[in-house]
Amino acid sequence: MSENLNGQKICPACGKENELVARFCKFCGINMSTYDSQTVENSQTVEISQTMRFRRNGWSICCVIFIGLLLYFTLVVIPNQLNNFAGALMSGLLLPLVGGASFIGLLYILWIYRGAKFRRIFSISHEGIKIAVPREPLFEVLWSKFDLIHLYKYSGSQNQKYYRFYFISNGVVYDEFTIAGSMHFSGRNCRAIVFQLKQYAEKMNVNFTRGKRIKY
């Protein structure tokens, strides 16, 4: 790292001018005080990607099997057991109720996993962090824009885990993003993402803290 005649700091990675007091390059985002060209050249972008199609198909198949079993018991087992007018009447009432409830359940499952076929991508490098999930705009933030990552993990409905990341600059939230476990990424990939963020934060001289677990 060096200075030019204008009293500006030259970034050792991209060679562009920055303010003398700048800690991070405003163009490429590297930490100029801890930059090691050999280490950066050998480092690669870490990407975690996943398609949730199998999970959605699995739930759909289970729901279809469940509907089939309910219909079988409603149309075959109950009439044979009761074998009278009351049994037939009960079967007639149960059929639309059970079928309607099962159909609604199937629609709910398909709605929950409506973006399952689209790929989720988490990418992290010495330049910044990118997260792409279905039906949400691409999230992207450079290391030069913040000095602290604060993680809150909390549980939502159906034991679903949410990971909310706050990217803080000088005590003010610069940007934030929430990863929904099993919706955006599997639980294992969520833990891998947290691990990579923590490891890269140490490399980029950025603080990484965890908040208390919250249950809603």
Describe the structure.
The chain is α+β, with helices and mostly antiparallel strands. The chain has three domains: 1-36, no CATH class; 43-51 and 119-211, PH-domain like (Roll); 53-112. Helices cover 38% and strands 27% of the residues. It has four helices and twelve strands. The strands form three sheets. Strands 8, 9, 10, 11 and 12 form a five-stranded mixed beta sheet that branches. A hairpin with a 3-residue loop joins strand 5 and strand 6 (128-132). Helix 2 (53-82) packs antiparallel against helix 3 (85-112).
Quick structural gist:
The chain has 216 residues and is α+β, with helices and mostly antiparallel strands. 38% of the residues lie in helices and 27% in strands.
Give the key terms.
single chain, 216 residues, alpha+beta, PH-domain like, 3 domains, 5-stranded mixed beta sheet, 4-stranded antiparallel beta sheet, 4 helices, 38% helix, 27% strand, elongated
